[in-house]
Amino acid sequence: MLKDFEMKKKEDKDALNVEIKELQTRLLQQQQLLVKEKLPVIVLIEGWAAAGKGSLIKELISEIDPRFYHVVSPTVIPESEERYPFLYQYIKTIPVNGKITFMDSGWMENVVRKYLRHEITKAEYRRRMRQINEFERQLRDGGYLVLKVFLHISREEQYSRLHDLAESPQTEWRVNREDLWQYKEYKRFVAAYDEFMEKTHHTIGWQVLDGSRRKTAIRDALRLLVQKIDRGLEAGRYVGNTPDGEFPLRKMPKLSEVDLTPTIDDEEYKKELKKLQTRLSELHNIIYRRKIPVILCYEGWDAAGKGGNIRRLTYALDPRGFDVHPIASPLPHELNRHYLWRFWTRLPKTGHICIFDRTWYGRVMVERLEGFCGEKDWKRAYYEINEFERMLTDWGAVVLKFWIHVDKDTQLARFTDRQNTPEKQWKITDEDWRNREKWDQYEVAVDEMLQKTSTKNAPWFIIESNDKKYARIKTLRIIVKALEKACEKHFEQILE
After folding, report:
1. C-alpha to C-alpha distance for 63 and 26, rounded to whole angstroms
2. Strand ranges across the sheet with 41-47
3. What is the DSSP string of 4-23?
4. Buried b (16+ CB within 10 A) or exposed e, 400-420
5. What is the CB neighbour count within 10 angstroms for residue 293?
6. Domains in the chain and their CATH numbers?
7. Tens digits of per-residue pLDDT, 102-120?
8. Strand spans (E) along 13-86
9. Span 8-17, pLDDT tens digits
């Protein structure tokens, strides 16, 4: 793309100014339509140091309403955010419906620089490009309009601009070691940028602009943005189909095939609980030191015992090293973003444990059955969720998912007990009774969820919970075993 790029010929300045003004006016008109139609837009501006990325964004936003756009510059990543998955810092900035996010550099610059500095391996480099393709496709399929622009200048032009910036006391601060290194390694960067764009072009194409012609670049960027928004407004919110591809899945039984009779006597329960909690406390210290993130997901029938199960788990943990996220209906600002956004923004730092009481699987259960999303949306979600969880395990996270299971009679007995016990009445709602009426529909949805999303790296475990004590011990055993395995694997990697 860059090697064969032909620089633009000089154009009439007055004609360019007229066209730029017309396009800026058109963009302002479109902005109000975006708000009305609730269409979100992401504009990614990548390019060479000193190519004029900041100036270009300034012109793009000059005439539009600042209440409905946001500019982010994630080039410098705080150390605290390096402890999250690679895409975390970009996903957290995606706009709500109807607004525009302009990004001054992003995932391309981050990945290419780390690769050329040998901070990530070739395998990790390719893995990140795959994740970027998945991320961009999920945005597109979720209705986002995404424009990716690369601002290109020659090595000679870059030298001239960096030199002028460095010579002025007012602008010398804008030239840093990274910029000078990029200029020195210009040919390597050309090759790396070309490879990156070729590998991340098929879902959302790259647009290369001539940064040496400032006015021309502004006009071309405005044209591209206005055209993309026009097409989006005309076509309406895009809804993608289920992507092609497979994940390595574990065979799961149907809920109706699960034997719910296992129990544990009180004496054994107390003995095992103390032993497992002690071991879990030790492992919590180890995963903190080795910076292994842990994500524990709880789903299950109402009154199945998720809360009690989580309490026995957290009792063994250092409160400074874990968070429990009870997931309810999305808030307005969450509902107006991609459905996975509110889970990305709740992920743990490396070395910490995150416990989700209800999860992203609401997409294929309650949202599916209550009509909160379309059929294409929830059918596509199985694949998107598998991709999301693969990103987490690629990052090094331990991901365990528990379905806390009871039969209908046990649930009814617990509902009745809650309703008839004053101090427990807060636990039972009209919604619980309504959900119970849809038990059979939910069972079909859960069976499909277990079959399609129990991957080898992020498995589901069905926890028999007619006996709550048995369920707690089984869950703790699974967690302890998985953490021991993760710590052992991490130690082996260090030795290598």
Report:
1. 10
2. 69-72, 100-104, 41-47, 145-152, 206-210
3. TPPPPPP--HHHHHHHHHHH
4. bbbbbbbbeebbeebbeebee
5. 23
6. 13-235 (3.40.50.300), 255-495 (3.40.50.300)
7. 999 999 999 999 999 999 9
8. 41-47, 69-72
9. 888 999 999 9
